[in-house]
Amino acid sequence: MMREFNEELINFIDASPTPFHAVEWMAKTLECRGFIALSEDETWELEEGNDYYVTRNDSSIIAFTYPPCQEKGYTIVGAHTDSPHLRLKPNPLTTSAGVKRFGVEPYGGVLLNPWFDRDLSLAGRVVYLEGDVRREALININRPIAIIPSLAIHLDRDANSSRSINAQSDIVPIIATGEVDFETFILSHIQEDTDNLTLLAHELSFYDTQKGSFIGINSDLIASARLDNLLSCYIGLQALLETSYPMMCAFMDHEEVGSESHIGAGGTFVEETLRRIAGDEYEKLMRHSIMVSCDNAHAQHPNFPSKHESEHAPLLNGGVAIKINSNQRYATNSRTQGRFVQCARALHVPTQTFITRSDMGCGSTIGPITSTRLGVETIDVGIPQLAMHSIREVCGTEDAYGLYRILVHLGDF
Protein backbone atom coordinates (compact mmCIF):
# COMPACT_ATOMS: atom_id res chain seq x y z
CA MET A 1 0.00 0.00 0.00
CA MET A 2 2.76 2.48 0.91
CA ARG A 3 4.63 1.80 -2.36
CA GLU A 4 1.52 2.50 -4.44
CA PHE A 5 0.85 5.64 -2.38
CA ASN A 6 4.32 6.99 -3.14
CA GLU A 7 4.21 5.99 -6.80
CA GLU A 8 1.03 8.02 -7.27
CA LEU A 9 2.65 10.89 -5.35
CA ILE A 10 5.52 10.95 -7.85
CA ASN A 11 3.07 10.78 -10.77
CA PHE A 12 1.15 13.74 -9.35
CA ILE A 13 4.26 15.89 -8.93
CA ASP A 14 5.56 14.97 -12.39
CA ALA A 15 2.22 16.05 -13.88
CA SER A 16 2.22 19.34 -11.92
CA PRO A 17 5.05 21.64 -13.04
CA THR A 18 3.04 24.70 -11.92
CA PRO A 19 0.25 25.42 -9.40
CA PHE A 20 -2.18 25.63 -12.33
CA HIS A 21 -1.40 22.07 -13.36
CA ALA A 22 -1.51 20.83 -9.76
CA VAL A 23 -4.99 22.29 -9.23
CA GLU A 24 -6.18 20.90 -12.56
CA TRP A 25 -4.95 17.41 -11.56
CA MET A 26 -6.59 17.62 -8.14
CA ALA A 27 -9.88 18.91 -9.57
CA LYS A 28 -10.05 16.02 -12.03
CA THR A 29 -9.30 13.54 -9.24
CA LEU A 30 -12.02 15.04 -7.05
CA GLU A 31 -14.57 14.90 -9.85
CA CYS A 32 -13.73 11.25 -10.48
CA ARG A 33 -14.59 10.63 -6.82
CA GLY A 34 -17.93 12.42 -7.03
CA PHE A 35 -17.03 15.90 -5.78
CA ILE A 36 -19.18 18.66 -7.25
CA ALA A 37 -17.57 21.81 -8.65
CA LEU A 38 -18.77 25.14 -7.23
CA SER A 39 -18.27 28.62 -8.61
CA GLU A 40 -17.59 31.60 -6.36
CA ASP A 41 -19.76 33.89 -8.48
CA GLU A 42 -22.88 31.76 -8.06
CA THR A 43 -25.24 31.00 -5.17
CA TRP A 44 -24.43 27.74 -3.44
CA GLU A 45 -27.18 25.22 -2.63
CA LEU A 46 -25.26 22.68 -0.56
CA GLU A 47 -26.90 19.31 0.11
CA GLU A 48 -26.12 17.03 3.03
CA GLY A 49 -24.04 14.02 2.03
CA ASN A 50 -22.49 15.67 -1.01
CA ASP A 51 -18.85 16.65 -1.44
CA TYR A 52 -17.70 19.86 -3.12
CA TYR A 53 -14.71 21.80 -4.38
CA VAL A 54 -14.06 25.35 -5.54
CA THR A 55 -11.03 27.01 -7.13
CA ARG A 56 -9.74 30.56 -7.30
CA ASN A 57 -7.44 31.75 -10.09
CA ASP A 58 -7.08 28.06 -11.04
CA SER A 59 -4.06 27.93 -8.71
CA SER A 60 -5.75 27.63 -5.29
CA ILE A 61 -8.34 24.98 -4.45
CA ILE A 62 -10.62 24.17 -1.51
CA ALA A 63 -12.43 20.83 -1.24
CA PHE A 64 -14.77 19.72 1.54
CA THR A 65 -17.31 17.21 2.71
CA TYR A 66 -20.73 18.50 3.81
CA PRO A 67 -21.97 19.13 6.40
CA PRO A 68 -19.34 19.74 9.09
CA CYS A 69 -19.67 17.91 12.40
CA GLN A 70 -21.66 19.82 15.03
CA GLU A 71 -19.35 18.73 17.85
CA LYS A 72 -15.93 18.73 16.16
CA GLY A 73 -16.35 20.96 13.13
CA TYR A 74 -13.92 20.33 10.30
CA THR A 75 -10.44 18.92 10.23
CA ILE A 76 -8.95 21.52 7.88
CA VAL A 77 -5.79 20.46 6.06
CA GLY A 78 -3.83 23.43 4.74
CA ALA A 79 -0.92 23.35 2.29
CA HIS A 80 0.42 25.39 -0.61
CA THR A 81 0.57 24.71 -4.34
CA ASP A 82 3.55 26.90 -5.28
CA SER A 83 7.27 26.14 -5.14
CA PRO A 84 10.35 28.34 -5.68
CA HIS A 85 11.36 28.44 -9.33
CA LEU A 86 12.47 30.66 -12.21
CA ARG A 87 9.59 32.65 -13.72
CA LEU A 88 9.75 33.90 -17.31
CA LYS A 89 9.90 37.69 -17.61
CA PRO A 90 7.13 39.41 -19.61
CA ASN A 91 9.42 40.24 -22.55
CA PRO A 92 11.95 37.44 -22.15
CA LEU A 93 13.79 37.13 -25.44
CA THR A 94 17.39 38.46 -25.50
CA THR A 95 20.54 37.76 -27.51
CA SER A 96 24.07 37.41 -26.16
CA ALA A 97 27.24 35.85 -27.59
CA GLY A 98 25.33 34.49 -30.58
CA VAL A 99 22.64 32.64 -28.59
CA LYS A 100 19.03 33.40 -27.79
CA ARG A 101 18.05 33.51 -24.14
CA PHE A 102 14.88 33.75 -22.05
CA GLY A 103 15.14 36.19 -19.17
CA VAL A 104 13.87 34.92 -15.82
CA GLU A 105 13.00 36.25 -12.38
CA PRO A 106 13.43 34.14 -9.23
CA TYR A 107 10.11 33.28 -7.58
CA GLY A 108 10.36 32.81 -3.83
CA GLY A 109 13.47 31.80 -1.93
CA VAL A 110 14.87 29.63 -4.70
CA LEU A 111 18.22 27.86 -4.20
CA LEU A 112 19.97 28.98 -7.40
CA ASN A 113 23.05 26.76 -7.68
CA PRO A 114 21.19 23.53 -8.56
CA TRP A 115 19.56 25.19 -11.60
CA PHE A 116 22.79 25.12 -13.58
CA ASP A 117 23.28 22.42 -16.26
CA ARG A 118 19.74 21.04 -16.03
CA ASP A 119 17.41 20.14 -18.91
CA LEU A 120 14.67 22.75 -18.50
CA SER A 121 11.18 23.00 -19.90
CA LEU A 122 8.43 25.60 -19.62
CA ALA A 123 4.84 25.46 -18.38
CA GLY A 124 2.09 27.72 -17.09
CA ARG A 125 -0.92 29.81 -18.11
CA VAL A 126 -1.33 31.85 -21.28
CA VAL A 127 -3.95 34.52 -22.00
CA TYR A 128 -4.56 35.15 -25.70
CA LEU A 129 -6.99 36.39 -28.31
CA GLU A 130 -8.63 34.02 -30.75
CA GLY A 131 -9.93 36.53 -33.23
CA ASP A 132 -11.63 39.02 -30.89
CA VAL A 133 -12.35 36.52 -28.11
CA ARG A 134 -10.08 36.46 -25.05
CA ARG A 135 -9.21 32.96 -23.89
CA GLU A 136 -6.95 31.20 -21.40
CA ALA A 137 -5.00 27.98 -21.73
CA LEU A 138 -2.55 25.89 -19.74
CA ILE A 139 0.52 24.78 -21.62
CA ASN A 140 3.29 22.36 -20.81
CA ILE A 141 6.00 22.12 -23.45
CA ASN A 142 7.14 18.90 -21.77
CA ARG A 143 10.52 18.59 -23.47
CA PRO A 144 13.92 20.18 -22.78
CA ILE A 145 14.10 23.60 -24.44
CA ALA A 146 16.65 25.43 -22.28
CA ILE A 147 19.74 25.09 -20.13
CA ILE A 148 21.72 27.40 -17.85
CA PRO A 149 25.35 26.46 -18.54
CA SER A 150 27.90 26.77 -15.76
CA LEU A 151 31.00 28.87 -16.27
CA ALA A 152 33.95 26.49 -16.72
CA ILE A 153 36.26 26.24 -13.74
CA HIS A 154 39.16 27.27 -16.02
CA LEU A 155 37.48 30.71 -16.25
CA ASP A 156 36.53 30.89 -12.57
CA ARG A 157 39.16 29.30 -10.35
CA ASP A 158 37.21 30.32 -7.23
CA ALA A 159 34.03 28.55 -8.29
CA ASN A 160 34.35 25.86 -5.62
CA SER A 161 35.25 28.22 -2.81
CA SER A 162 33.69 31.66 -3.05
CA ARG A 163 31.45 32.07 -6.05
CA SER A 164 28.20 34.02 -5.69
CA ILE A 165 25.33 34.09 -8.17
CA ASN A 166 23.89 37.24 -9.69
CA ALA A 167 20.18 36.62 -10.20
CA GLN A 168 20.01 39.12 -13.06
CA SER A 169 22.95 38.04 -15.20
CA ASP A 170 24.16 34.56 -14.17
CA ILE A 171 21.05 32.39 -14.44
CA VAL A 172 19.65 33.28 -17.85
CA PRO A 173 18.66 30.09 -19.74
CA ILE A 174 19.89 29.70 -23.32
CA ILE A 175 17.33 28.38 -25.80
CA ALA A 176 18.72 28.52 -29.35
CA THR A 177 21.45 29.69 -31.71
CA GLY A 178 19.04 30.48 -34.55
CA GLU A 179 16.10 32.85 -34.78
CA VAL A 180 13.18 32.52 -32.36
CA ASP A 181 9.68 34.00 -32.56
CA PHE A 182 8.61 33.93 -28.94
CA GLU A 183 4.91 34.61 -29.50
CA THR A 184 4.54 32.01 -32.24
CA PHE A 185 6.49 29.45 -30.22
CA ILE A 186 4.21 29.83 -27.19
CA LEU A 187 0.95 29.97 -29.15
CA SER A 188 1.89 26.88 -31.16
CA HIS A 189 1.46 24.87 -27.98
CA ILE A 190 -2.20 25.88 -27.91
CA GLN A 191 -2.93 24.97 -31.51
CA GLU A 192 -0.91 24.39 -34.68
CA ASP A 193 -2.40 27.22 -36.72
CA THR A 194 -1.52 30.42 -34.87
CA ASP A 195 -2.58 32.94 -37.55
CA ASN A 196 -5.77 33.86 -35.69
CA LEU A 197 -4.11 33.97 -32.25
CA THR A 198 -2.54 36.93 -30.43
CA LEU A 199 -0.61 36.56 -27.19
CA LEU A 200 -1.80 38.94 -24.47
CA ALA A 201 -0.05 37.77 -21.28
CA HIS A 202 1.61 34.76 -19.70
CA GLU A 203 2.63 33.24 -16.38
CA LEU A 204 5.25 30.70 -17.43
CA SER A 205 7.76 28.89 -15.26
CA PHE A 206 10.85 26.84 -15.99
CA TYR A 207 11.08 23.38 -14.45
CA ASP A 208 13.48 20.43 -14.48
CA THR A 209 12.41 17.71 -16.92
CA GLN A 210 13.93 14.95 -14.77
CA LYS A 211 11.14 12.85 -13.29
CA GLY A 212 10.77 11.99 -9.62
CA SER A 213 12.26 8.67 -8.54
CA PHE A 214 12.88 6.27 -5.70
CA ILE A 215 16.54 6.38 -4.71
CA GLY A 216 18.85 4.64 -2.27
CA ILE A 217 20.10 1.07 -2.00
CA ASN A 218 16.80 0.12 -0.35
CA SER A 219 14.70 2.56 -2.42
CA ASP A 220 13.63 4.22 0.83
CA LEU A 221 14.07 7.82 -0.37
CA ILE A 222 12.22 9.93 -2.91
CA ALA A 223 13.96 12.56 -5.04
CA SER A 224 11.79 15.00 -6.94
CA ALA A 225 11.14 18.62 -7.75
CA ARG A 226 8.46 20.50 -5.81
CA LEU A 227 8.22 18.15 -2.82
CA ASP A 228 7.80 21.44 -0.97
CA ASN A 229 4.87 21.52 -0.98
CA LEU A 230 3.02 19.36 -3.49
CA LEU A 231 3.84 16.44 -1.20
CA SER A 232 1.52 17.93 1.44
CA CYS A 233 -1.20 18.66 -1.12
CA TYR A 234 -1.15 15.04 -2.22
CA ILE A 235 -1.26 13.73 1.36
CA GLY A 236 -4.17 16.00 2.27
CA LEU A 237 -6.11 15.14 -0.87
CA GLN A 238 -5.75 11.40 -0.30
CA ALA A 239 -6.84 11.79 3.32
CA LEU A 240 -9.91 13.75 2.25
CA LEU A 241 -10.86 11.01 -0.23
CA GLU A 242 -10.55 8.25 2.36
CA THR A 243 -11.68 9.75 5.68
CA SER A 244 -15.09 9.12 7.17
CA TYR A 245 -15.00 12.39 9.15
CA PRO A 246 -15.90 15.93 8.03
CA MET A 247 -12.80 17.36 6.40
CA MET A 248 -11.72 20.32 4.32
CA CYS A 249 -8.56 20.75 2.26
CA ALA A 250 -7.32 24.28 1.48
CA PHE A 251 -4.35 24.34 -0.88
CA MET A 252 -3.22 27.89 -1.53
CA ASP A 253 -0.92 29.63 -4.02
CA HIS A 254 1.66 32.33 -3.23
CA GLU A 255 2.92 30.92 0.09
CA GLU A 256 6.52 31.13 -1.10
CA VAL A 257 6.18 34.89 -1.64
CA GLY A 258 4.34 35.73 1.59
CA SER A 259 0.70 34.65 1.01
CA GLU A 260 -0.49 38.25 0.77
CA SER A 261 -2.71 38.02 -2.30
CA HIS A 262 -6.34 37.30 -3.12
CA ILE A 263 -5.40 33.66 -3.79
CA GLY A 264 -2.98 33.28 -0.88
CA ALA A 265 -3.58 32.24 2.71
CA GLY A 266 -3.62 35.92 3.70
CA GLY A 267 -6.56 36.52 1.36
CA THR A 268 -10.26 35.87 1.78
CA PHE A 269 -10.66 32.55 -0.04
CA VAL A 270 -10.79 30.17 2.93
CA GLU A 271 -12.78 32.47 5.20
CA GLU A 272 -15.39 33.26 2.56
CA THR A 273 -15.79 29.58 1.73
CA LEU A 274 -16.27 28.64 5.39
CA ARG A 275 -18.77 31.46 5.93
CA ARG A 276 -20.82 30.26 2.97
CA ILE A 277 -20.81 26.76 4.41
CA ALA A 278 -21.60 27.72 8.02
CA GLY A 279 -23.78 30.80 7.66
CA ASP A 280 -24.71 32.14 11.10
CA GLU A 281 -22.85 29.23 12.72
CA TYR A 282 -19.42 30.35 11.42
CA GLU A 283 -17.92 31.36 14.77
CA LYS A 284 -19.17 28.17 16.39
CA LEU A 285 -17.70 26.12 13.54
CA MET A 286 -14.29 27.74 14.02
CA ARG A 287 -14.32 27.03 17.77
CA HIS A 288 -14.92 23.34 17.11
CA SER A 289 -12.55 22.87 14.15
CA ILE A 290 -8.83 22.21 13.96
CA MET A 291 -6.45 23.19 11.19
CA VAL A 292 -3.46 21.03 10.30
CA SER A 293 -1.00 23.21 8.41
CA CYS A 294 1.16 20.79 6.40
CA ASP A 295 4.45 22.11 5.07
CA ASN A 296 7.69 20.16 4.86
CA ALA A 297 10.27 20.43 7.65
CA HIS A 298 14.07 20.51 7.52
CA ALA A 299 15.46 17.03 8.15
CA GLN A 300 18.85 16.97 9.84
CA HIS A 301 21.44 17.22 7.11
CA PRO A 302 24.08 14.50 7.53
CA ASN A 303 26.83 16.73 6.14
CA PHE A 304 25.85 19.80 8.20
CA PRO A 305 24.47 18.48 11.51
CA SER A 306 25.49 21.63 13.38
CA LYS A 307 22.90 23.64 11.43
CA HIS A 308 20.17 21.98 13.47
CA GLU A 309 18.93 22.08 17.05
CA SER A 310 20.41 18.84 18.38
CA GLU A 311 17.37 17.59 20.32
CA HIS A 312 14.81 18.67 17.74
CA ALA A 313 16.31 17.65 14.40
CA PRO A 314 13.93 15.36 12.48
CA LEU A 315 15.36 12.37 10.63
CA LEU A 316 14.30 11.02 7.25
CA ASN A 317 11.82 8.16 7.73
CA GLY A 318 11.74 9.00 11.44
CA GLY A 319 8.14 10.17 11.49
CA VAL A 320 6.02 13.26 10.96
CA ALA A 321 7.66 16.43 12.30
CA ILE A 322 5.60 18.67 14.60
CA LYS A 323 6.83 22.22 14.11
CA ILE A 324 7.04 24.48 17.16
CA ASN A 325 8.16 28.08 17.59
CA SER A 326 7.61 30.18 20.71
CA ASN A 327 7.47 33.37 18.60
CA GLN A 328 4.51 32.04 16.62
CA ARG A 329 6.29 31.44 13.34
CA TYR A 330 4.42 28.15 13.65
CA ALA A 331 0.91 27.98 15.12
CA THR A 332 1.26 24.75 17.16
CA ASN A 333 0.17 24.89 20.80
CA SER A 334 0.11 22.20 23.48
CA ARG A 335 -3.58 21.44 22.92
CA THR A 336 -3.31 20.86 19.18
CA GLN A 337 -0.03 18.99 19.61
CA GLY A 338 -1.57 16.74 22.25
CA ARG A 339 -4.50 15.81 20.05
CA PHE A 340 -2.26 15.10 17.07
CA VAL A 341 0.22 13.00 19.07
CA GLN A 342 -2.60 11.03 20.72
CA CYS A 343 -3.92 10.08 17.30
CA ALA A 344 -0.45 9.19 16.01
CA ARG A 345 0.29 6.95 18.99
CA ALA A 346 -3.02 5.14 18.66
CA LEU A 347 -2.07 4.34 15.05
CA HIS A 348 1.55 3.52 15.97
CA VAL A 349 2.77 6.27 13.65
CA PRO A 350 5.99 7.90 14.90
CA THR A 351 6.27 11.66 15.34
CA GLN A 352 9.21 14.00 15.86
CA THR A 353 9.52 17.62 16.97
CA PHE A 354 11.21 20.37 15.01
CA ILE A 355 12.44 23.73 16.21
CA THR A 356 15.17 25.88 14.71
CA ARG A 357 18.34 26.77 16.55
CA SER A 358 17.84 29.77 18.83
CA ASP A 359 20.59 31.65 16.99
CA MET A 360 19.03 31.16 13.55
CA GLY A 361 15.96 32.66 11.92
CA CYS A 362 12.83 30.58 11.60
CA GLY A 363 10.72 30.31 8.49
CA SER A 364 6.95 30.22 8.61
CA THR A 365 3.94 28.63 6.94
CA ILE A 366 0.31 29.34 6.12
CA GLY A 367 -0.49 28.07 9.63
CA PRO A 368 -0.10 31.31 11.63
CA ILE A 369 -1.61 33.35 8.78
CA THR A 370 -4.73 31.22 8.47
CA SER A 371 -5.09 30.71 12.20
CA THR A 372 -5.03 34.47 12.73
CA ARG A 373 -7.55 35.14 9.99
CA LEU A 374 -9.99 32.37 10.92
CA GLY A 375 -9.50 32.15 14.67
CA VAL A 376 -9.09 28.38 14.44
CA GLU A 377 -6.75 26.33 16.60
CA THR A 378 -3.89 25.07 14.47
CA ILE A 379 -0.97 22.69 14.45
CA ASP A 380 1.99 22.97 12.06
CA VAL A 381 3.41 19.66 10.85
CA GLY A 382 5.60 18.56 7.99
CA ILE A 383 7.43 15.72 6.33
CA PRO A 384 11.21 15.91 6.95
CA GLN A 385 13.14 16.65 3.79
CA LEU A 386 16.58 17.64 2.57
CA ALA A 387 17.53 20.28 -0.01
CA MET A 388 14.45 22.45 0.60
CA HIS A 389 13.91 24.99 -2.20
CA SER A 390 16.34 23.20 -4.48
CA ILE A 391 15.38 22.17 -7.99
CA ARG A 392 15.46 18.59 -6.66
CA GLU A 393 14.53 17.72 -3.08
CA VAL A 394 14.69 14.53 -1.00
CA CYS A 395 12.33 12.93 1.53
CA GLY A 396 11.69 9.47 3.00
CA THR A 397 9.18 6.97 1.69
CA GLU A 398 7.61 6.21 5.08
CA ASP A 399 6.81 9.67 6.45
CA ALA A 400 4.23 10.79 3.89
CA TYR A 401 2.17 7.65 4.36
CA GLY A 402 2.31 8.10 8.12
CA LEU A 403 0.92 11.64 7.93
CA TYR A 404 -1.81 10.43 5.59
CA ARG A 405 -2.90 7.83 8.14
CA ILE A 406 -3.03 10.42 10.93
CA LEU A 407 -5.14 12.83 8.89
CA VAL A 408 -7.60 10.11 7.95
CA HIS A 409 -8.29 9.36 11.62
CA LEU A 410 -7.71 12.70 13.40
CA GLY A 411 -11.45 13.33 13.57
CA ASP A 412 -11.68 10.45 16.07
CA PHE A 413 -9.69 12.40 18.69
Task: Write a structural description.
The protein has 413 residues and is of the alpha/beta class. α1 packs across α9 (397-409) and α4 (227-242) runs parallel beside α9 (397-409). The longest helix is centred in the middle third of the chain and has 16 residues, at 227-242. 24% of the residues lie in helices and 28% in strands. The protein has 2 domains: 2-83 and 225-412, Zn peptidases (Aminopeptidase, 3-Layer(aba) Sandwich), CATH 3.40.630.10; 85-208, Aminopeptidase i, Domain 2 (Roll), CATH 2.30.250.10.
Give me the side-by-side strand order of the main sheet: 1-2-3-13-4-14-18-16-17
- Report the major sheet: 9 strands, mixed
Strand content: 25-35%
What is the total tally of β strands? 20
SSE-based structural type? alpha/beta
The number of helical segments is: 9
Instruction: Compute the CA-based radius of gyration.
Output: 22 Å
Looking at CATH, the homologous superfamily of the largest domain is Zn peptidases
* Shape call: globular
Quaternary status of these chains?
single chain
What's the CATH architecture of the largest domain? 3-Layer(aba) Sandwich
CATH class of the largest domain: Alpha Beta
The averaged pLDDT comes out at: 96
Report helical residue fraction. 10-25%
For the terminal residues, how far apart are their CA atoms? Answer: 24 Å
Low-pLDDT regions: none
Give the CATH topology of the largest domain.
Answer: Aminopeptidase
- Integer count of domains: 2
Order of helices and strands: HHEEEEEEEEEHEEEHEHHEEEHEHEEEH
